[in-house]
Amino acid sequence: MKFEDLLLEIGGFGRFQVWILFILCLPRINLPMHFLLHNFLAATPSHHCAIPHQEAFVNLTMEEVLLISIPRKPDGTFRSCEMFSQPQFHLLLNSSLQPDNSSVIQHCQHGWVYDHSQFTSTIATEWDLVCEQRGLNQATATFFFGGVTMGAVAFGYLSDRFGRKAMLLLSLVCSVVFGMLSAASVSYGMLAITRTLTGVALSGVSLIVLPLGMEWVDIQHRTFSGILTSIFWSIGNMLLALVAYLVREWHWLLVAVTAPCLLSAVCLWWVPESARWLIANGKVQQAHRHLLRCARMNGRKDFAVSLEALRRMAADKKPGGSYSYISLFRTPVLRKISLCCGAVWFGVAFSYYGMSMNLTGFGLNMYLSQFVFGIIEIPAKMIMYVLVNRVGRRQSQAWSLILTGLCIGANVIIPKAFTSLRSVVAIMGKGFSEAAFSTVFLYTSELYPTVLRQNGMGYSSFLARLGGALAPLVFLLDEVWRSLPEVTYCGVAVCCGSVAFLLPETLNARLPEGIEDIE
């Protein structure tokens, strides 16, 4: 007997599964509020060099003081990182004149003055992470995703070894602890460490939520469940725009996005451990208890299965030995799946976060851009729900990622003057990007067998988070060539999308239980 047959007897998608999915959607909402928090946490408002007070400035307006103290760009705006070593009073007579010589221009000597009209404070204004320190500001996101990368490896193994629910609870509790410590940071070093540890903890949430729900759902409703769960990511995206709009001070913003993890941890009390995992690991008595509970909630009171039948199923699923990440590469078919999945996940995350962390330049303020980028994901997911069931997982995965890259590349070619067209193409690209992300979670969870599913998801997530960690640093390449970041995102997305054509199709296939099912 296969576990899929048991699901049909107890109800593969009834009240029990709906209840579990609803509870698991709560932490799913919270994930993007942390993963995309860098947009607001590290936002850099307009700024200029601080100008020390001089007696000669007494009768001058602030605009005149800036005119004689700060050099201008060709477009007439004041430079952010340079100042005159001596006031250029002759510019008061004719502001179009050039300074006497370039040697009077120097880097900021007395700190910076920031525009606080949009943000009360961010980490950029707190520790002057601008100009020469701009790289440290972008590195904050890299530290976070570096933590997520490490967490993917750790929680992938731990959830296969000690169970989905226990590790999900651990990750939620750690997310609360490290998130609050981040909010209390008194130095950049403390923030970098605590954000890294928050990333480690949240990686467990990201990694476990979907498989824990999927392992209770039958084949017919698996796609629906995966898409439904991912819609709550988009809701979190939109909520982040609202929370960031209401909370403009970075300490309290961190508190606001971390607190809901506590609610998710409490609600986890009502979620059972995966019966698939329990049977695969020989814990048949617990599995039996959860299966009876599921049948009772779904109105299947005549359901009965013996412990002996479950023990035979466990023996079939556990041919011997324990599994590790090395097991993903021991057999030829599984090796090919692992290599291709890793490339696809890297490309999906690299392009997704490359687009999501570039909220400016679309003719909208950053809060509205965040909201629009979130809301466009919902119709994208709805369309993918139809496509993955009609044309299959493989084609949907490949083309959604390739089209993401082409949209990013199109905006390199479209002139800056066509702002409306650029905005439409960017929003379409964001929709394709989210479609690719929604599909890859569902697709990967169907490709790996139960005994290695979390190891496979952990390995794939490791490469995805590596892509997420590198994505914000690519923005620094604009100093080499302004369009180089977009060209990089485009090339990676198209190449990795093409790799998806090498993966097997899983539409309407049973979830594999052991390695022999794959081979």
What would you say this structure looks like, in words?
The chain is mainly alpha-helical. The chain folds into 3 domains: 1-38 and 130-317, MFS general substrate transporter like domains (Growth Hormone, Chain: A, Up-down Bundle); 47-114, no CATH class; 327-518, MFS general substrate transporter like domains (Growth Hormone, Chain: A), CATH 1.20.1250.20. The protein contains 22 helices and 4 strands. Strands 1-4 form a two-stranded antiparallel sheet. Strands 2-3 form a two-stranded antiparallel ribbon. The longest helix is centred in the N-terminal third of the chain and has 29 residues, at 134-162. The protein is elongated and about 95 Å long.
How do the helices and strands line up, and which of them pair or pack?
Layout lengths: L2 H8 L4 H21 L2 H4 L5 E3 L12 H8 L12 E3 L20 E3 L4 E3 L8 H4 L7 H29 L1 H20 L4 H27 L4 H28 L3 H9 L1 H8 L7 H6 L3 H14 L9 H11 L14 H25 L9 H10 L1 H14 L2 H21 L5 H29 L5 H22 L9 H16 L15 H4 L1
Antiparallel strand pairs: 1-4, 2-3
Strand order of the largest sheet: 1-4
- Total beta-strand segments: 4
Tell me the count of domains.
Answer: 3
Q: How large is the share of residues in beta strands?
A: under 5%
Total of DSSP H or I helical runs spanning 4+ residues = 22
At CATH level 3, the topology of the largest domain is: Growth Hormone, Chain: A
Main sheet record: 2 strands, antiparallel
Indicate the overall shape: elongated
Which structural class fits the helix and strand makeup? mainly alpha
Residue-averaged pLDDT: 87
> Roughly what percent helix?
55-70%
Organism: Zapornia atra
GO molecular function: organic anion transmembrane transporter activity; prostaglandin transmembrane transporter activity
Pfam family, one: Sugar_tr
InterPro entries: MFS_dom, MFS_sugar_transport-like, MFS_trans_sf
